[in-house]
Design brief:
This protein is mainly alpha-helical. The protein has one domain. It contains twelve helices and no strands. The model has no long low-confidence stretch (mean pLDDT 92).
Length: 304
């Protein structure tokens, strides 16, 4: 676990340095946009650490995951003089943020006491592991990974907007990307809804002491989109930010540029996150191992 954490933190520091050093020099406007969003990032990360430490609820970053990118997007759009591409990207990210915020909220993630709300079950499982004993080790993990690394990653995935500042005029490929972006939001919405319906009905049956039959007998969602992918929502999320990167490609004509680091690091994060989630699920449900052997992790029929 510690090796993974060190690797992730290392990539967050080294990858941007290498990317900026070997990439095209940034314009003054781009530098200004990075500084403005960077200030928001530092404040949000620090507050997430402080609040999570005081309340022992480590889902503070989770609460901001779908909100802060929208803030970044409109800050960057302002620096880009609200050009057509800036507005398009900011609107798309806002749609993404609204949907994800709604989904997180209906699961109990938010409360009028902003520091409360349901905590992601994985944090309590992880904090109980021997690697994070005594408590000061978990506090270090919370500071560097949960708070500053994850908040930094949230910032990096919006950097294609900064790269796109001052780019070529909006073209047909931008509209194609926009359609793809919305398409995967729809797919992610369907996946989350299927999981929501399954879990709500399962909890109702358990509350009424009824036997779990049919699709509920396995204990985990495995129908609908989940029949073809173990994490269709995660897959869509990654693709959405890959699409966001390609807006920087249409703006600059450069197929490879420094703003790709955000979506690449996101892919690494989702690999680790899904590994940990599946470890828990595998220990909880006997039939999950068989489901896992027959179903792709992210992309259907590919890389099981």
């Amino acid at each position: 676990m510690w090796k993974t954490v060190i690797f992730l933190i290392f990539t967050l520091i080294i990858v941007p340095v290498i990317a900026f050093y070997y990439g095209q020099p940034l314009s003054e406007v781009q530098v200004s946009a990075i500084k403005s969003t960077g200030i928001v990032y530092l404040i949000a990360a620090f507050l997430s650490f402080v609040v999570s430490t005081i309340t022992n609820n480590h889902s503070q970053v989770d609460k901001l995951w779908s909100i802060i990118p929208v803030v970044y997007a409109w800050i960057i759009a302002d620096h880009g003089d609200f050009s057509s591409r800036m507005i398009l990207m900011a609107v798309l990210i806002s749609i993404w943020g609204f949907r994800l915020t709604y989904n997180f909220g209906r699961r109990g993630g938010y409360s009028w006491k902003f520091w409360t709300g349901d905590e992601d079950y994985r944090w309590s499982v992880l904090s109980a592991k021997k690697e994070f004993q005594p408590k000061w080790k978990w506090m270090i993990f919370n500071f560097f990974f949960i708070s500053f690394y994850q908040m930094g990653l949230i910032l990096l995935i919006t950097f294609p907007m900064i790269k796109a500042i001052g780019g070529a005029p909006l073209g047909i490929f931008d509209y194609v990307l926009a359609v793809l972006f919305i398409s995967f939001i729809i797919i992610e919405t369907i996946a989350d809804q299927q999981q929501w319906v399954f879990q709500k009905e399962k909890q109702r049956l358990l509350a009424e002491n009824k036997e779990l039959k049919g699709i509920f007998s396995k204990g985990f969602v495995h129908t609908g989109l989940w029949k073809y992918s173990r994490h269709p929502n995660y897959a869509s999320e990654q693709i959405i930010w890959i699409i966001t990167y390609f807006f920087s490609v249409t703006a600059t004509g450069q197929w490879l540029n420094w703003s790709i680091m955000g979506c690449l690091l996101l892919i690494i994060l989702f690999k680790g996150s899904s590994d940990f989630s599946e470890e828990i699920t595998n220990n909880k449900y006997k039939s999950y191992k068989d489901y896992k052997s027959k179903t792709a992790r992210f992309i259907p029929f590919f890389m099981k």
